[in-house]
Amino acid sequence: MAAEEKGAAGQAMLRALGRIEIGDGKAHDRMVVFPAYGGSNGGQERLRYRTLQEAIAEGGVEVTERPSATVPELVLRNRSETMVLVVDGEEIVGGRQNRIVNASFLVAGGATVVLPVSCVEQGRWREVSPRFSAGEASFFSLRREKQAQVRESLSYSGRPTADQGAIWEAVARQEARMGSHSPSGAMHDIYRTRSSDLASYERAFPYVADATGLIVAMNGQVAGAELFDQPRTADVLWAKLVRSYALDAVEGEAAEPVTRDAAVRFLERTRDARYEVYPSLALGEDVRLAADGVIGAGLVYAGVLVHVSLFRTVGPVAGQGRMARASVRQRQRE
Length: 334
Known about the structure:
The protein is an alpha+beta fold. The chain contains nine helices and 18 strands.
């Protein structure tokens, strides 16, 4: 990828983040959700795509094991003429074991891609269905941990792979914390165990009209954000993302609700973020950013920030030193 393309993708992300406006938050139990507004397409015509869960339900996409099945890869076939958005951390259920996606991808119509994934069901390696269905989103703390792992892998190898052992450990910790007892150690069963609690959060935080994403605070501090290029995508994925944060919030420490000013400051930290850009395995570019107290990963296609996940960090980020040096070299080339 040429230096000019890398710089354009990174700057497209920073510009899009700079256009986001934050609405008033709503609190429930240990969590506060702030709606985010402002499409990241900067006035361009909206991209036409379906989310993975829609495309699977409609029969336009099938996800299967590889002919010789392996843990870290699945095959996605887009049989439709429309692009399909696969969001970082989405769970897909079935096959020989349930998986989560390692990064966000935009898959062209008619394309077949090998999807980099991580297992979230350690105790099963037998087929329960030949095709995968859409599941939950990875819980917040797992997504944050995995994002740092994938960042490290990209910096070393250019491949979006995660630390499978660490993923299993994170799921096991959450299982114990939530009082779930899954015979196969499945993340999906943790959601089932706490479904009643999660439903209360889902009712408390319905989709907010015209929002393009959400910033979430829990246990007294801003935790992260999920932002998209258009309201429709945020609407489709909203409930799933609320549950993913709630699974960490439900057993957290009680604290005073976080104010809107804190959410604004969290987003403002990305203004001068360092970034590194990698070719996506499908369409567009994978952009990784790091700023003071924030890490992020996003997908940029045709100058549009299609999706970005941002997470609060404590202490140094794995690979951040290399990113900083790479970003300085990038700016010197631009």
